[in-house]
Automatic annotation (TrEMBL), chain A:
A GO molecular-function descriptor: maltose binding
Keyword field: Signal, Transport
Gene3D superfamilies in the cross-refs: Periplasmic binding protein-like II
GO cellular component, one term: ATP-binding cassette (ABC) transporter complex, substrate-binding subunit-containing
Signal peptide start and end residues: 1-24
GO BP annotation list: maltodextrin transmembrane transport; maltose transport
Protein's recorded name: Arabinogalactan oligomer/maltooligosaccharide transport system substrate-binding protein
Entry similarity comment: Belongs to the bacterial solute-binding protein 1 family.
Automatic annotation (TrEMBL), chain B:
Native organism: Phytomonospora endophytica
Keyword Thylakoid attributed: no
Protein name: Maltose/maltodextrin transport system permease protein
Membrane topology label: Multi-pass membrane protein
Matching PANTHER family: MALTOSE/MALTODEXTRIN TRANSPORT SYSTEM PERMEASE PROTEIN MALF, MALTOSE_MALTODEXTRIN TRANSPORT SYSTEM PERMEASE PROTEIN MALF
InterPro entries: MalF_N (IPR035277), MetI-like (IPR000515), MetI-like_sf (IPR035906), TM_PBP2_N (IPR032550)
Gene Ontology molecular-function annotations: ABC-type maltose transporter activity
Domain of life: Bacteria
Subcellular location: Cell membrane
Family the UniProt entry places it in: Belongs to the binding-protein-dependent transport system permease family. MalFG subfamily.
Cellular component annotations (GO), alphabetically ordered: maltose transport complex
Keyword Transmembrane helix belongs to the record: yes
Length: 412, 525
């Protein structure tokens, strides 16, 4: 009998599998009949608890029930997949550089902001969420890289990279530190962290159209400027300023353990630094001597309205008319300290948090991380080229090789 | 077991041969099957997917027929669930992969053409410059039709708007709450947010026609006058921009709307591309070129992974097989420990241990080896990690198999004068291999596609300068993952085509392997 029971159990499991397939095929609008109306918000596992703490407030002010779901991994991919099926959320919180991909997959709708609302935002943040002339998200936090230095080891902010390297070399010689700089590279490179140096030395990724949008047909990688820029990066590699052995997993610990006086990182590093009790200051990333500013990329965390959500009007109400208000922006900052994108909120919190203004200063004039889908073709080859060059590879061949790979991927 | 025997002996109709508990369990489980079937069928009916409904109904009916009728069909009771599971978990995914591989399914080509058109039109809705921003209340008219109650705070005028157009309202008929929200309008019922949420789709679809555009809701409390500048024209199968006059014609080959200059709108749709993905794998120089070098390393990686883990596992198993060994349990526990730890985390830890400047290995041995920057040290490193992760499993299965070898055989060999090595070489190993070869083959097949082992340690690297598409430790699976997902977004159609190639390779190797095992078994029988 036991065997027979096992057989039926297997059959039950099978029916489950079949029904699983069945429901994923289901494309019709079942209208969520019987289920209560409301709003479904997806956020990553860091932000979901923050929003959860505002849920009852949202609910009473919006007058609908709200469900906040944490998606801990691959939020963007999961959202796109869910949009194809029948289980898309109504609102998603993510980085602005997802916009290009989300738009080409028809996953998000433009957000109609009034002129008054638009002027309330940090202009760079608003520009970042603007794609093909439309605003696609309500920005709430801005983040960018800066130079964080240990003020006990290095009291003076460096005026240039050369200046910083000289000071760092002295510290190392005196045995006070072990590493010159902690800027994550890793075995496969890191385009985001390399960009400020690349930009300072004259490189660019995509040209810009007249309206300020990035132009995928004007690829900067492989152009003479990019080769010159990587020559400078190569020099830093030879001096041991940049190392492939410093990656995302150890760059912040190196700084908090006092093994280096300089760290290039973003606001997310502050939690660990404060915990370690390191005395620090935040300044703009210095550029190469006599060359351009080392501008980091600006990343903008935003609220998006899903195209395939079941309660789109509520989602619009939430994103366009509610998230854009100062109280929520400030409250979100208090729960998760990232520089608010709303000017009124930023001004309010910067008096109590001087780091914010310093990060904002480091990000002044920073271009938004390109949101065009073509950007995804850059990350991997660019990073690997950086890693190879830091490791001592021939600059011209490496950059041209990366440019070919990127160019081919964009053509596809 | 005895229950089955009893049941087959007593071929009487009904359940005379089954115990009461058996009956209860059977009925409960069948009830679960029925409930699941109903749960699966409801959305299928909603989707009007009658084939799906048919399949679920047929499968359920079959299961009921088999388990509720007398025991004549005993073999079927085992065969059918197995077959259905095989279909669900093996054949359907393979067919799905095959069907995906002949499409351009991927980022930008996920939905249907209609969805792309809706998305293009929605994305082109812009606010008419200089138009007022209205305060909005969602209401219903007499016959439950949706009405927008609008007010222009600048002029203090009020309107009611529906699909037919705007109608002026007398300000005295409208009342506002403290927050400035419209709370009442004579002749209309204002909806609460929750009520409005239920009619979300209707609200989104309503654009009150006015001169130069339509008034659309922006959420529940604001409205704006907007125009959709891009519209689909059936006659020319194209999208036209009414402001700039640009035209994008549908291209059924690529699944994009493309203009005369070859520029496409970002929103595309899924189209069948025939064997294009396969031809790309075979003809694209960038894919075909490194394919062989990746393939040989892939074989080397899979074979070495199996050999070294089996070698060490077997060695440990033999060492601990001694009868008189003390604290055997302790040793066994220690050996099995790596197997008990999550491979995912261990791989990341090993990656950090191989770090040139900060890694444990270089620090401990006073080395300065760039493990992951030289092809051969990187390959050595990943095999070493494989060894550590994999030998406990081999130890376990080898221990089991050793215990199954009758000690008489070995004693007989000893009496006949065989040395320990001879006995192992001629008796133990062959007997072990008979039972373990299928496991070794499946271990080979698993390692052949061991994505994590590479992706989480070297990431496929080191890469030759200027070539970021193929690295020295890339397996076919990590290499194609980069091709399909590392470039411009996800290309599922292409990835599926490559998977089919990999499937063919692994299947061929496995078939050959199993054939040889069978031959071997016959020799030793």
């Amino acid at each position: 009998m036991r065997v027979k029971i096992a057989g039926v159990a297997v059959a039950a499991a099978l029916a489950l599998a079949v029904s699983g397939c069945g429901s994923s095929d289901d494309k019709a609008d079942d209208g969520a009949k019987g289920s209560e109306p409301g709003l479904v918000i997806w956020a990553d596992d860091k932000r979901a608890p923050v929003l959860e703490s505002f849920r009852s407030q949202f609910e009473s002010e919006l007058g609908v029930t709200i469900k906040i779901e944490a998606v801990s991994k691959d939020l963007q991919a999961n959202f796109v997949t869910a949009s194809q099926g029948d289980n898309a959320p109504d609102v998603v919180i993510g980085a602005h550089d997802w916009i290009g991909n989300l738009v080409q997959n028809g996953a998000i709708d433009p957000v109609q902001l009034t002129d008054a609302q638009k002027t309330g935002f940090n202009a760079d943040a608003l520009k970042a969420v603007t794609y093909n002339g439309q605003v696609y998200g309500a920005p709430y936090a801005v983040e960018n890289l800066a130079l964080i230095r240990n003020t006990e080891l290095a009291p003076e902010a460096p005026s240039s990279i050369e200046d910083m390297v000289a000071d760092a070399e002295k510290l190392k010689k005196d045995g006070k530190t072990e590493e010159l700089l902690s800027l994550q590279v890793g075995d496969n490179g890191d385009a985001y962290h390399a960009y400020p140096l690349y930009a300072s030395a004259g490189g660019y990724l995509f040209g810009q159209k007249d309206n300020g949008d990035y132009d995928p047909s004007d690829l900067g990688v492989g152009k003479p400027g990019s080769i010159a820029a990587f020559e400078k990066i190569s020099e830093l590699g030879k001096k041991g300023v940049l190392k492939t052995s410093i990656g995302s997993e150890n760059s912040i610990p190196l700084f908090t353990e006092g093994k280096t006086a300089y760290l290039v990182s973003g606001p997310w590093a502050l939690t660990d630094i404060k915990k370690a009790g390191t005395k620090y200051d935040i300044t703009p990333i210095p550029g190469f001597e006599g060359m351009g500013k080392a501008t980091p990329f600006l990343g903008v965390q935003s609220f998006f309205v899903a195209s395939k959500g079941k309660h789109k009007t509520v989602a619009q109400e939430f994103v366009a008319n509610y998230v854009t208000g100062e109280p929520l922006a400030t409250a979100l900052y208090n729960a998760d300290p990232r520089p608010p994108a709303l000017t009124a909120s930023f001004d309010k919190v910067k008096t109590t948090d001087p780091d914010l203004a310093k990060f904002a200063e480091a990000g002044a004039g920073a271009p938004a991380l390109p949101a065009i889908p073509e950007m995804s073709a850059i990350w991997d080859p660019f990073g690997k080229a950086e890693s190879a060059i830091v490791g001592g590879a021939d600059v011209k061949d490496t950059v041209e090789g990366a440019a070919t790979t990127i160019g081919d991927a964009i053509k596809k | 077991m005895d229950a089955v025997q009893t049941a087959s002996r007593q071929r009487s109709p009904g359940y005379a041969g089954t115990s009461l508990t058996g009956l209860v369990v059977r009925i409960t489980l069948l009830g679960v099957v029925a409930a699941l079937a109903v749960w699966a069928v409801l959305p299928l009916i909603g989707a009007r997917s009658w084939i799906g409904v048919g399949v679920v109904a047929a499968a359920t009916a079959l299961l009921f027929w088999i388990y509720l009728t007398p025991n004549k069909r005993l073999p079927l009771k085992y065969l059918v669930p197995g077959t259905l599971l095989l279909i669900a978990f093996q054949i359907v995914p393979v067919l799905f992969t095959l069907s995906t591989s002949v499409t351009n399914f991927g980022d930008g080509h996920r939905g249907s053409k209609d969805e792309a058109i809706v998305s293009i039109q929605t994305a082109s809705i812009t606010q008419v410059p200089g138009s007022p921003e209205y305060d909005l209340a969602i209401a219903t008219g007499g016959d439950d039709t949706l009405v927008f109650i609008l007010s222009d705070p600048a002029t203090g005028r009020y309107w009611a708007g529906d699909a037919d157009g705007l109608k002026d309202l007398v300000p005295a008929d409208v009342q506002k709450g403290l927050s400035g929200k419209i709370t009442e309008a004579r002749g209309y019922t204002i909806l609460t947010a929750a009520e409005a949420a239920e009619r979300s789709q209707e609200i989104t679809d309503l654009a009150v026609p006015v001169d130069g555009g339509g008034i659309r809701a922006n959420g529940l409390s604001k409205a704006f006058k907007g125009t959709s500048s891009r519209a689909y024209d059936q006659a020319c199968d194209c999208v036209r921009d009414s402001v700039t006059g640009e035209v994008w014609t549908a291209d059924p080959e690529t699944g994009y709307f493309t203009d005369a200059a070859g520029q496409s709108l970002p929103q595309g749709w899924q189209v069948a591309v025939g064997l294009d993905n396969y031809t790309r794998v075979v003809t694209d120089e960038k894919i075909r070129g490194p394919f062989l070098s990746v393939l040989w390393w892939n074989f080397a990686f899979a074979i070495l992974s199996v050999l070294v883990t089996f070698g060490l596992g077997l060695l440990c198993a033999i060492a601990l097989h001694k009868e008189r060994l003390r604290a055997k349990f302790l040793y066994r526990t220690l050996i099995v420990l790596p197997y008990a730890m999550p491979a995912f985390a261990m791989l990341l830890i090993w990656r950090d241990m191989f770090n040139q400047d900060f890694g444990l290995i270089n620090t401990m041995f006073g080395l300065d080896v760039g493990w992951f920057s030289n092809p051969w040290t990187a390959r050595f490193a990943v095999i070493l990690v494989q060894l550590w992760l994999g030998f406990p499993y081999m130890f376990l299965v080898a221990t089991g198999a050793l215990q199954a070898i009758p000690s008489e055989t070995l004693e007989a060999a000893k009496i006949d004068g065989a040395t320990g090595w001879q006995a192992f070489r001629r008796i133990t190993l062959p007997l072990l291999l008979v039972s373990l070869t299928p496991l070794l083959i499946s271990s080979f097949a698993f390692n052949f596609n061991n994505f994590n082992a590479i992706q989480l340690t070297t990431g496929g690297g080191p890469f030759a300068a200027g070539n970021s598409s193929v690295g020295a430790t890339d397996l076919l699976i990590t290499y194609t993952y980069r091709l399909a997902f590392g470039g411009q977004g996800a290309q599922y159609g292409f990835a599926a085509a490559v998977s089919v190639f990999i499937f063919l390779i692994v299947a061929t190797v496995s078939v050959i392997g199993f054939r040889r095992t069978r031959a071997q078994e016959e020799i030793y029988r």
